[in-house]
Write a structure and sequence with these properties.
- The complex is a heterodimer.
- Helix content of chain A is 43%, strand content 17%.
- By secondary structure, chain A is α/β, with parallel strands linked by helices.
- In chain A, helix 4 crosses helix 14.
- Chain B is mainly α.
- Chain B contains 17 helices and no strands.
- At the A-B interface, helix 2, strand 2, strand 4, helix 5 and helix 9 of A face helix 4, helix 11 and helix 16 of B.
- Chain B: It holds the Pfam family BPD_transp_1.
- Chain B: InterPro entries: AA_ABC_transptr_permease_3TM, ArtM/GltK/GlnP/TcyL/YhdX-like, MetI-like, MetI-like_sf.
- Chain B: It is a multi-pass membrane protein.
- Chain B: It is found in: Cell inner membrane; Cell membrane.
């Protein structure tokens, strides 16, 4: 105390306070302010324990969704939210309440999404967010699952006669400014020792318009976006998406760090959807499957064991998910696959048994 | 010699038909010569403008009307490759999505409530703005009390739960307020009867309002997260406009006040709010504010930007009104004071009516700016008209090259109708109020 006072006196009474001292002081004040702010962040994060209890008490799930991304989160003409990410939130609501409509969607822009999760405004963020180490470790988040393996791809005109990205040497490529897309592009072409000319635009709209008008040979963005953009072309059939994927963009739901039960619910909701697909349990046949003798199906549907109760849900939690939303494959086909206008192939998102990366962890 | 001449031989008995004026001083040709081609500079300007109109107008008309598609159920109707001719605006898209543009995600069976809200708003605005409407004093009561309460109940469903013991607290607070007013009247030696009536009036208004809000009308509750489209745009604009004028006037008076603390507070408020972009206020309100508040005390996500825009508009309005106050000649103040008027009487009867008339263009300018600024709430994830259009234009069912343009053209039309209406009304108002100035 005494020392502190003396220090204070010295700092302020010293007549020859140099500019350097002054800057140090400012830095100190800034770092204190920053420390307080982070402490505030962490404390609000920690105080949001027991998300499940608060969701049950509210009577609905708050889900951070995209403000509009075709196939993943988009309101339809009646204002109902649809899409792969949206249905995942509905699946969580179904598991908790046996009612997929007990979700409130809060559309979040990319820059607000993690803050909204940290501040407790949303219970889960299901908004095509790439899982990265820094986000997982530094932002106080957990990514319990990867519900879509995306990656950067290319679209070219058919009449160019190109069938692989390796043949794009010397091509001009339209891309969006200041995104990781631009960096990935540079890495890929340097690694393959090819030349290219980048034509960059500020917004994705402008970028695609330029490609459609013939300003460049190829257009690059995340593969899921390529299919959505192609529909807007003046002649969609004139364009093809090349098979190469040049970056890893695992997209998944996020929850706050520190509430393990809630992270478990999100993780196992997704795995139940995958397991259901693998075991052939669908929206239509889930009731018949309850009488199945297959022990894996029995454990999934809760006719054997108490797996649901262990995460704070009822034992028929997976039945609720499948009955209201369906298994992963059904949700995929309905929103982004053959059942939709996007017609994205399963590709990396096929089950591991079919050569993809989606591997449902065993329920046992 | 006689000077008498028989004039009848020289003078016509009937009048000659007047010659038409020279063709170049009357009629359309003359008008054009005088106004469009009066000199080399004028001629060149006319030709340039005509050329610009020729370049821009036909394509716009072609896009909006001639090539436009009016019917259809999905993207096939609006694509050149499927219909076989160039396609302009895809109005079929707007028609299909018009419910989403108007109500957002508001549940379809409950949308009649929003329609009634629109109707009530139109009645209120008409009642107040139409100068020859009957009982405009009742109109003010309707617009500032009945209409907000009714809209709140209609849109949210009412039936707010204040929690147990609320009415007891309210009764105690009411008695305390009335007692305080009466005591104040006693000490100031003015009429205690008036104080009692005023106190009871305030308590009655607040009490009735709260009772209505708590009453269960059997309406399905609709959370504000589901509101959207034109509903939200009009709501934000109305709240901003209705709050900004009275608050702006109070702030302007505060800034011109002789009381130092009041003046300092007003100056700090105005300068701080004016020194910050609206978008910062909105992002602060919707992204940062929840970080500082405990998770369950959060103010509603729609109310936050509403308050933000209202505060923002008030600060701008205050400066506009201050301009009017400063333009008043000193003699007006002195005249009012020499008549023995006190400060409120002087302001209400003499200064403000004249000051506000001077600044009508500025006030309407602020309103129009505010009306368009409401589209900024889309940045913080509120589904106003712009946001509903942006979300709809990426719908794969309607993916076509002209969809984005169509959506924005619709938004432009909507904003233009409202802003142009405001502008015309203010011109009429200025003319009417300036009648006393003309001799």
């Amino acid at each position: 105390m005494w020392q502190g006072t003396r220090l204070g006196c010295e700092l302020f009474a010293e007549p020859s306070l140099t500019l350097g001292d002054y800057i140090d002081m400012k830095k100190a004040i800034a770092s204190i302010a920053f420390g307080l702010l982070t402490a505030g962040l962490i404390s609000t994060g920690a105080s949001a324990q027991a998300t499940l209890a608060s969701v049950k008490q509210k009577g609905y799930l708050t889900c951070g969704s995209n403000t509009g991304l075709a196939g993943f989160g988009l309101p339809d003409a009646q204002g109902n939210w649809t899409g792969l990410d949206v249905e995942f939130c509905r699946a969580i609501a179904a598991a908790i309440f046996d009612d997929p409509t007990k979700v409130r969607f809060i559309p979040l822009a990319a820059k607000d999404r993690f803050t909204a999760l940290q501040s407790g405004e949303v219970d889960v963020l299901s908004r095509n967010s790439t899982v990265t180490m820094s986000r997982d470790t530094q932002l106080g988040l957990d990514f319990p699952a990867v519900n879509y393996y995306d990656g950067q791809g290319f679209m070219v005109r058919k009449k160019l006669g190109v069938s692989s990205a390796k043949e794009l040497n010397g091509a001009s490529i339209c891309t969006q400014q200041g995104t990781t897309t631009e960096l990935n592009l540079a890495d890929y072409f340097r690694a393959n020792n090819m030349k290219y000319e980048v034509v960059a635009f500020a917004t994705s709209d402008e970028t695609f318009k330029a490609y459609d008008a013939g300003r460049c040979d190829a257009f690059t963005t995340d593969a899921s976006g390529l299919y959505a953009e192609r529909l807007r072309a003046s002649n969609p059939d004139d364009h093809i998406v090349l098979p190469e994927i040049i970056s890893k963009e695992p997209l998944g739901p996020a929850v706050r760090h520190g509430d393990n039960q809630w992270a478990d619910i999100v993780r196992w909701t997704f795995n139940a959807m995958l397991d259901a697909e693998e075991l052939g349990v669908t929206k239509a046949n889930v009731d018949q499957m309850k009488t199945s003798d297959n022990p894996e199906i029995k454990r999934l549907l809760g006719t054997e064991g108490k797996f649901g109760e262990a995460v704070g849900l009822s034992n028929d939690w997976a039945v609720r998910i499948i009955k209201h939303v369906g298994n992963y494959g059904e949700s995929f086909e309905r929103n982004v696959g053959e059942g939709s206008k996007l017609k994205i192939k399963r590709g990396q998102n096929a089950l591991w048994t079919k050569g993809g990366l989606q591997y449902g962890l065993p329920i046992r | 010699m006689t000077t008498a001449v028989d004039m009848s031989h020289y003078v016509r008995s009937d009048k000659i038909e007047a010659l038409p004026p020279p063709r170049l001083t009357r009629g359309p040709l003359a008008w054009m010569r005088e106004n469009l081609f009066s000199g080399p500079v004028n001629t060149i300007l006319t030709l340039v403008v005509l050329y610009l109109l020729y370049v821009t107008i036909p394509p716009v008309i072609r896009f909006l009307f001639t090539d436009a598609v009016w019917t259809g159920t999905d993207r096939a109707a609006c694509r050149e490759d499927t219909v076989g001719h160039p396609v302009g605006a895809c109005w079929a898209f707007v028609i299909e999505k018009i419910n989403f543009f108007t109500y957002g995600s508001y549940p379809a069976p409950e949308r009649w409530r929003v329609n009634i809200f629109f109707l009530l708003l139109a009645i209120g605005v008409g009642w107040l703005l139409w100068l020859r409407a009957p009982r405009r004093d009742l109109g003010a009561v309707y617009f500032f009390w009945v209409f907000p309460v009714a809209s709140y109940i209609l849109l949210t469903g009412g039936n707010v739960d204040f929690g147990g013991g609320f009415w007891l607290t309210f009764a105690i607070a009411a008695v305390a307020l009335v007692g305080l007013l009466v005591a104040a009247a006693y000490f100031l030696q003015t009429s205690m009867r008036t104080a009692l009536i005023i106190g009871l009036g305030i308590v009655a208004v607040i009490g009735i309002t709260l009772a209505f809000i708590e009453w269960d009308f059997g309406l399905l509750p609709v959370p504000t997260a589901l509101w959207g489209g034109i509903l939200v745009t009009l709501l934000v604009a109305t709240v901003g406009i209705v709050f900004s004028l009275p608050f702006g006037i109070l702030l302007a008076l505060g800034r011109r006040s002789k009381l130092p603390i009041l003046r300092l507070a007003s100056v700090i408020f105005i300068e701080f709010v004016r020194g910050v972009p609206l978008i910062t206020v909105l992002i602060m309100a919707n992204t940062m504010l929840p970080l500082f508040l405990p998770p369950d005390t959060g103010v509603d996500r729609l109310v936050r930007p509403l308050v933000g825009t209202a505060i923002f508009a008030s600060a701008y309005m205050a400066e506009v009104v201050r301009g009017g106050l400063q333009a008043m000649p000193k003699g007006q103040y002195e005249g009012a004071m020499s008549l023995g008027l006190n400060y409120p009487q002087m302001m209400i009867l003499i200064i403000l009516p004249q000051a506000l008339r001077i600044v009508i263009p500025g006030i309407v300018n602020t309103f129009i700016g505010l009306f368009k600024d409401t589209s900024l709430v889309s940045v913080v994830g509120i589904f106003d008209l712009i946001k509903t259009i942006e979300a709809s234009r990426i719908d794969p069912n309607w993916a076509a090259p002209t969809i984005s343009y169509t959506g924005y053209a619709f938004a432009a039309l909507f904003y233009f109708i409202f802003c142009f209406g405001m502008s015309r009304y203010s011109i009429g108002m200025e003319r009417r109020l300036a009648a006393g100035q003309k001799r």
